[in-house]
Each structure stands twice: as structure tokens, then as C-alpha cells.
Specification:
alpha+beta, Cathepsin B, Chain A, 8 strands, about 15% strand
């Protein structure tokens, strides 16, 4: 339910000019040629039909999002419990979700603004208990990401890029957000234990972005913690929740076309 960690060997991910770059040279798929040309360039609105799947516990929202992705590309034989067994941990980070998608040959690109742990996160209650225990495991996953064929790009993704990707109809995305900032917009609709309390500290949570309405400037999402089958949030709300301190702006962009072609099942 949180971002990722690194690192000893951080220099592996830095070019000679000192700028952080992608772990892989490019995404495993070609982004639409219309990307970045403006939110109205393709269609005024577009929504991918993705069945809503609710999380079972406070920690498995990311697994529910992965299961929604698998369902969207035609893999229907798995449950959240099955994915939990494949992950073998209840401390789910974005890099865990990346490896899980890779097991099913899903074509995706992992965007983040940080390779490794931001030491300032240690002050956040959400991170305090998990961070010390997860350091070694997450570090190893990042070290082996390239070898595993996982594309990681170190850069911020803006609202316009996301809306353009959604309007193209070619992509859906798993985003790490601050649950508190997200739930302020429909408080009372969230039913998972722990999300109704009044504290305002960061709480990591995963949602699936699957559409955009340019006229209303709203994204359609699937929130595993919501009782609603589909939810709409303003682009401003999503931007605030995605770029909250603690998220590293983690985004897993999934190519529906490529994933449908090459999907496979873990051995």
C-alpha cells in the first residue's frame, strides 16, 4: 500500500550528467502519438469498462487494482486471495504490483519521482512500522527490476498526460494516492475499516484510473475502498491526491492493446 525503497547503488539509475532517468530506456510499448497534444485532442470523453472489485482488507487495495486490470484484459481466473499468495506479503508496495503485473505479461510502464526511500517519510505514521522491515526486500526488487523486464521511468506525470492517455482509449492506470485527500470528496461512501477516522495524516491507497470526461474535467476511477461501482473525481482532486507527500507520484500505466495480445499466466 506504499511506494518503494532503495538504495545502496543509487548511481545505477543516474546518467553521467547526474540526472535521474528511466531504469529502462523506454516503455515496453509505444505511447500514443497524440499524447501530450491536449486533453481534447482525441475525444471529448472516453471510459474503459472495468468491473469494480472491492478490497477485502485495509492492505490489499493494490491487489484489487491489479485484479481489475487483469479482468479488463480478459484474465478472469484469479481472486484477490490468489494474488496475495503470489505476492507472499501483506505489505504491498508499488514495486510489488509491478512484479505482479509482470507475472501475467501485462505491458506497462512504472512512473515515479523517486528511486528509493525519501528519508523524510520516516516521520509519517503510515511508514513508521513497515519501513524498517521492508527496506531489504524492496531494495532487492528494485535492483533486479531491469533484469526482470520492468520498465521504470523517473519523472513526474502531469494531469494533461493522464487525461490524454485516458481519452485515447488505449490505457488504464493504477495510481498511488493519499486516501485522506481522495476521500474528502465523498466521505461517507468509503466503507473499509480505518478510512472513516478524522486524522489528516497521509494514508497510502491505490485506485484505478479508467476514463476522462473533458467537458466536466473529471476522471472516472475504480476505488477498491468505495461501495460505488464507479466514481468520478475532478482532475484537481486527483492531482492533489496523487502528488501528496508520501506517494512519490507512483503510476503504473497499462497498455490495454499490448497486454491483451501478450497476456499469460504465472507458472
Amino acid at each position: 500500500m506504499i511506494p518503494k525503497i532503495e538504495e545502496e547503488g543509487r548511481e545505477k539509475f543516474i546518467e553521467s550528467n547526474g540526472d535521474q532517468i528511466s531504469v529502462a530506456e523506454c516503455c515496453p510499448f509505444q505511447l500514443s502519438s497524440n499524447d501530450g497534444t491536449g486533453c481534447n485532442a482525441v475525444l471529448p470523453s472516453h471510459f474503459v469498462e472495468v468491473p469494480h472489485i472491492k478490497q477485502l482488507f485495509s492492505w490489499d487495495c493494490g491487489l484489487a487494482c491489479v485484479l481489475m486490470v487483469l479482468t479488463a484484459i480478459g484474465i478472469n481466473d484469479y481472486s484477490i486471495q490468489d494474488l496475495a499468495e503470489l505476492c507472499a506479503t501483506t505489505s504491498i508496495w508499488t514495486v510489488d504490483l509491478a512484479y505482479l503485473l509482470q507475472k501475467f505479461s501485462v505491458s506497462f510502464c512504472y512512473f515515479t519521482v523517486t528511486f528509493g526511500a525519501n528519508p523524510n517519510y520516516s516521520i509519517e505514521t503510515f511508514y513508521k512500522e513497515q519501513l524498517p522491515n521492508d527496506l531489504g526486500r524492496i531494495d532487492m526488487l528494485f535492483q533486479k527490476a531491469v533484469e526482470a523486464g520492468i520498465s521504470i521511468k523517473c519523472r513526474s506525470i502531469g494531469r494533461k498526460e493522464i487525461c490524454q492517455w485516458m481519452l485515447s482509449g488505449k490505457y488504464i492506470a493504477i495510481a498511488l494516492v493519499d486516501q485522506h485527500k481522495l476521500s474528502r470528496f465523498w466521505l461517507g461512501d468509503v466503507t473499509v475499516l480505518g478510512f472513516h477516522d478524522s486524522h489528516t495524516e497521509y494514508t497510502g491507497h491505490y485506485i484505478l484510473i479508467c476514463g476522462y470526461d473533458a467537458g466536466k474535467d473529471e476522471f472516472e476511477i475504480r476505488d477498491p475502498a468505495s461501495s460505488g461501482k464507479r466514481d468520478r473525481i475532478s482532475s484537481k482532486c486527483l492531482e492533489e491526491a496523487r502528488k501528496s507527500f508520501g506517494t512519490d507520484e507512483d503510476l503504473l500505466l497499462i497498455s490495454l492493446e499490448e497486454s491483451t495480445k501478450q497476456k499469460s499466466y504465472p507458472v
